[in-house]
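Input:
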Amino acid sequence: MGEGEAMKAQVSALMDGELNERESMETLRVLCGDAELRRRWADYHRIAASLRGEPELDLVARVMTAIDAESTRSYAASHTILDRLSRLLFLGRRCVDFGRAPAWALAASLAGVAVVIVWAMSSAPAPGERLGVLQARVEMPPALAPSPSSRASLQEYLLAHQAYAPGGALTGGTRNIRSVHRVAASGGGR
Amino acid sequence: MKPVVAILNGICRLVWTSIVLAVSSAPTFAHADEAMEILQRIAHSVRRLTYDGTFVYRHGDTLETSRIAHAVVDGRELERIEVLDGSPREIVRDARELKCFLPDEKRVLIEDIALQDGESRRFPALLPLRLSSLLDHYSIRLGAQGRVAGLPSRAVLLEPRDNLRYGHELWVDNASGLLLKAVLRNERGAALESFAFTQLKVGGPLAPDRLKPHFDAQGVQIHHVRTVDVKSEGLGWNFRTMLPGFRRVMAMKRQPMADRPESLHVVFSDSLATISVFIEPGSPTAPVEESVNLGAINLYRRQLDEYRVLVMGEAPFAAVKLLGDGIERKRK
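Output:
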C-alpha cells in the first residue's frame, strides 16, 4: 500500500472511530495540510449523513473548502493549540466516533469552541507544569498501626466524615459501611 | 503585512482549526453528556427509590457482606445497613440522626445531622452545575455494558486529571438508575476498595422491621455528638492550601459528651472526593505527626500548638497532607 493509500485508510479509520487519541491527532494534522484528503473526509461525511437519512452536513464541506484557501502556514502555527485542544477535547481518551455525530452535538461544540480556545490558550497548563507544587509527590511513611484508643476515636471521626461527604449523593448509604468495617489500618508517625 | 491583518489572519487560522476539531470531537462531547446524565440519574435514584439488597464491601484483603434497606417515608429518607459477617454492626439513618451500633464495643455512636430548621444536612443533592464541574478534574466517559447482581448495567468511568483524587468506576442499573457497583482506583489503576450489590430488589413496600434497629441498647455507652454550623468568620483557622477543585462545603462545631472537648469539623469536597478536617484542643502527644491508611481513606494527624489537627479523606495521601500542612490559626 502506497503512502497516499495508507493515509486514505487512516482517514477512513478516523471516520469509523478506530484510531486512538494520538493516531487521531496525527491524522487530523495531515488532513489539515492535504487538500485531497480533506475532500475525501468531506465526502465520507456526506455519504455517512446520507446513509443515516440525515440532511447533508454542508458545513463540513464549506469548512474544508475554506481550509483549502488557507495557507499551509496556518497548519504549522496551530500545532501548539492543537496539542492543547486535543488534551481538552479528547475526554476519556476514547476513540472518536466521527461517523455518528448528531447535529445538536456538532452545534454545541461549535458554540463552545470559542470558549475552549480562550481556555486552552490562557489557562490550560502545559505538561509537567500542571498544578505546580500541588502535583508534588508525597510518600507514605512506614507502616504503624494506631493504638486501640485512637482507633475508637478514629471511628467516631470516620462516621462524621462519611455523614457529610457530598460524594454520598452518588454512592448512597453503602459508603457508610466504612464506618463499621473492621479497621485494618496501617500508618506511620514521627 | 500590517499587524492588524496578521492578527486577523491568525484568528481565522485558529477558528478554522477549532472548527475542524469541533466537528471531529462532537461525538466525544455527546458521550460525556450521556455519562453526566447517568451520574445525575444515579444521584436522583439513590435518594428517591425504595430498595432492599445485599452488597459486598471489599477493602484490601478483607471482604464483608451487608444488607441495606432504603425508603422514602413522608418525603424523608430512611435507611438501615446491617453487617452480615462477624459481629452484627448496624447503621441506621433518618433525617435527623445517623446511628452506628457497635455490639463488640458496647457503644452507640450518634451523629446529629439535622439543621436547626429540621432539614438534613447530610450530603445534599448534587446539582447539575456541581456535577458538570467534575469535568474540570475528572475525565468522564461511558464504559462497557454488563451485568451486576443479575441486572443489565452500564459503566461510567471517572479518571482523575491530577494526583489529588482517585479514579471511580461506577456501574448503574439500566432500569432503575441505582448504583450497583463502585470501584475506587489509585493512580496505577489498582482497586483500593469496592462496593457491589449481589442481590437487589427495587420498589415495593418494605417490611417495617427492615428499617428499624435490631440492636439491644441496654448497658451500652452512648456517644452522641451534636453539631452547630459555623460561618467563615467564626472558623478561627486559615486553610492556606486550597486543593484545585475542592471547595469548603460545610463547617460545624461538634459538641460531644461532657467529658470531651468541643471540636471543629470542616468539610472540603470536589463533589466526589471528600476531605474532612477535625481540629480539637489537646496537649501535644507523640508522635507529633502521624499518618494512617484505611484502604481508600488516608488520615494525617499533626499537632499545632495546643490543638490536634486530623485530616482524613478518600483521596491520595498527597492531597490529605497538602491540605493539612496548610492549616494555621488565625491571628487575632
